[in-house]
Structure prediction request, 625 residues.
Amino acid sequence: MRVDAPVRYTVDVSRAPQQLLGVTMTLSDVPKDLAGGVLDVHLPVWRPGLYVLVEQAGTVRDVTARAGDGAAIRVEKVEKATWRLHLGEGWALRGGEVTVGYTVLAASLENRTRHADSSHVFMSPSTVMMYAPGWRERPVEVSITAPEAFVREGWRVATGLPSEATASGWVVRAKDYDRLVDSPIEVGLHDVRTFEVGGVPHDLVVWTGLKPEGRTTAGVLGELEKYRGMPGVLSKIVEAQRRIFVGEEEEKGGLPYERYVFLVHAYPAGRGGTEHWNSTVMQTSPEAFLTDRYDNFLSLVAHEMFHTWNVKRFRPSGLTPYDYQRENYTELLWLVEGTTTYYEGVTLSRAGLMKHEAVFERIAGEIDREKTAPGGRVQSAAAASFDAWISGSKLGADQINSTVSIYGKGMLVSFYLDMWIRERNEASDGLDGVMRELMKLAGGGSGYSTADVKRIVAGVSGSSAAEVDEFFARAVEGTGLLDPTVALSVMGLEVADAEKEEGTLGLTTSEASGVVTVSAVIAGGPGSKAGLLPGDLVVAVDGVRVRTDAEKMVTKRKGERVRVSYFRNDTLREVEVEVGSKPVGKVKVKSVKEPSEKQLRLREKWIGKGSSGGKDAKAEDSAGR
Prediction:
């Protein structure tokens, strides 16, 4: 049996302080009779876990190529992320090997793509390493070379891939390009703690960007352990999610990996995370470990860990296999991201890390959002999933009027679906059962469709296909306001709307240096009817200066007509606005006074016993995350 030679990469990190990486890719067994005598190589235009075209090819420079005998190969850029290698007429005689070299600017940390400085190099490989389609399934070997001074300083490698130290740095191996790009690589100054869940090793890796002569990464990790019980709480989260996929009665198995890495970037303004095959990258501020924001961090952990199954092991057909050079469309991102968001609170409550009331508060927040944001009357959860790739162009003034979040709306739909199943089949495990069946169906990488999800829901709930179709038409594909009453009643819960109302202009404003700018206008609201637009600078209401928020000027003037003075295109204007009304406070979800024994039994099966302490672990927008 023929064994294909691996695709070999080298990454020179010697210029990390200047945020530059030197990269080479070597392809072996290049055919002598290649069509047209050309070979195209690409850099992906997006990275797994982020449904946005990040256009990272713009950071690539100095692309060159040579044959195995050292002869230069002409390189032509033919698309934004495609370079064509003209092998030339003599290639049939030389054949064999091609090496492509280039430089990458690694200066983007917040979207978890590539970043380098004097303390580390972080690489999401899809943003650093090119590929040739015909070699995508070959084994991969990445040699990372570093100056001896870096090694003496304490640099090392952390990744979910097999790795080892070498005389000049480290080598990392992957079974193919797809596994490589789904395995971030962290090289530099970081601290590591290893723990086990079910006999499977897990690494907690923390990078802070601080050098040994300053505050050490070990100090930050010490704070984690001292104040928050890390990595013990990680074990609880992993175990709670393992039981979702194997069932409560199973004591062993269910972890779909042989090793897992939690990679934490703790730096000022850090937020969000990205899931990967057997690892995750999570970003937060160091202060989060010492404040209530730690609850946000645990929520992020639960989100990214759940993705280990939901999207890393089973994913929609539209995402299987990945096409790295274009958008990958699916109407099921509400399940990929929204269901995962829903299980944040469910996981933390079952793990004893969150109170039941905090889970209810999360649900109430999404009920309130759906009720007050007009976008839900325009876009369905399915449509938001399909349009995720262009939502970046909508993340402006009109977002609230035209879009819904695959995270938030998907979370609410997932809650309703969970309750819908449990109400019809008390013996079932609700949405847990759907997750397990999806794992059985598509855990091998085949992909699943909406029809598959509907069929599984019908089986788990004991419902007819027509009943499932009706639920999906209303909750997933529809744009009507969903009534939470029935879903909440399954668990002995009820919704309490705000009892009072106050005046509103139907505007969202922001303040900077004393200038108040309209950032959004609610469609059909008072400001919209009066012709106010995003970007207008509001200066006064009835002649009184607006210093922070124009809405605060009219809270007690519901039904009155007021004069709003504003600048547009540097011209002072004035318009009369009839003040509308909006609820004071947010919707609340709470337990009924006397829930039945059945409701309490179902509630405990749903979210466990909860915790007696701790606060709400509100979700950071992982947008993806």
